[in-house]
Amino acid sequence: MTVLLVTGASSGIGAAIARLAARQRFDLVITARRIERLESICGECEPFGVQVLPIQADLAVGEQVRDVAQRALEHFGKIDILINNAGFGRINWLEALDSEEEIAAQIQVNLIAAIQLTRYLLPSMIERKQGYIINIASIASLIATPTYSVYAASKFGLHGFTEALRREIAIYGIHVSGVYPGGVETEFGEKAGIKRKTRIKTPDWMRLTADRVAQETLQLIRRPRRQVILPSYLSLVVWLNRFSPALVDWMLQRWFVARERAGN
Ligand SMILES: NC(=O)c1ccc[n+]([C@@H]2O[C@H](COP(=O)([O-])OP(=O)(O)OC[C@H]3O[C@@H](n4cnc5c(N)ncnc54)[C@H](OP(=O)(O)O)[C@@H]3O)[C@@H](O)[C@H]2O)c1
User: Fold this and answer.
1) Which of 88, 107, 213 best tests ligand 1's pocket when mutated (most atoms within 8 Å of CB)?
2) Which residue CA neighbors atom 43 of ligand 1 most closely?
3) 120 noted as active-site residue
4) Residue 213 domain-assigned?
5) Is 245 a member of any domain?
6) Tens digit of pLDDT for each residue in 10-62?
7) Residue 147: which CATH number?
8) Inside any domain, residue 251
9) By CB neighbour count within 10 A (0-12 exposed, 13-18 middle, 19+ buried), where does 123 fall?
10) Into how many domains does the chain fold?
11) What is the dihedral of CA 50, 24, 166, 80, to 10 degrees?
């Protein structure tokens, strides 16, 4: 059986990946801090005849990241597919963010934990000359917007890691891909602490479901690609940002920053 490890599987995109992967008959390692949620996902997955190992871990803590890799390898002997999905955003002006909880932890969970977990599992993939590493990044990996400075730093980092690693290990037959979603309907928004004077937010019609992101992510296993931008038309915005950054700077200053900062 193919074994898939997904981090951040207690809600949102990670939970949707776990459910869909079980239907596709992958054995699973699922990890997050909320163990009761993981156990409930196990209960949904096991009827498909797959083995599911839940591991409670706080990925902001380095030793717990190592523990996830060790326990997963001890239990299954291998991980075929690693999906680095766990992450969170605290969306605010840089000067308003708390240094430990909102800056250090965001970089640790979104970026360093993904790098470390990959590093712990990579030797066994190289040895077997097969494997797939998929990083759930964000459109914020490709376009940095005001109030997303630390989140963007973590996700730009994850994008750079994804690109370099793909070029490092393709020679062993190991695939590496990045998934770059725009707004997705999950718990992410509630936890992000977004406060807006303007009512600017991702319009409902543009928001993706976690199931759609899970489908596009697992499709990579059948048809590997370097990156998936979701929805695909956001590629145009990425293109505009790359080729006309001054215009994007001007638009964001005028329509967002000037109005949000007014009176401060
Ligand atoms: N929603 C969006 O609009 C959007 C857009 C682009 C990219 N993304 C990315 O998609 C990924 C999944 O987010 P989501 O939208 O599905 O949000 P979500 O529903 O809040 O899920 C986040 C997951 O990450 C886990 N997590 C957070 N901090 C953790 C920690 N310290 N240790 C271990 N696990 C931790 C959470 O589990 P516990 O709380 O149980 O630990 C949860 O399972 C994130 O990397 C996010 O940046 C989201």
Assistant:
1) 88
2) 8
3) no
4) yes
5) no
6) 999 999 999 999 999 999 999 999 999 999 999 999 999 999 999 999 999 99
7) 3.40.50.720
8) no
9) exposed
10) 1
11) 20
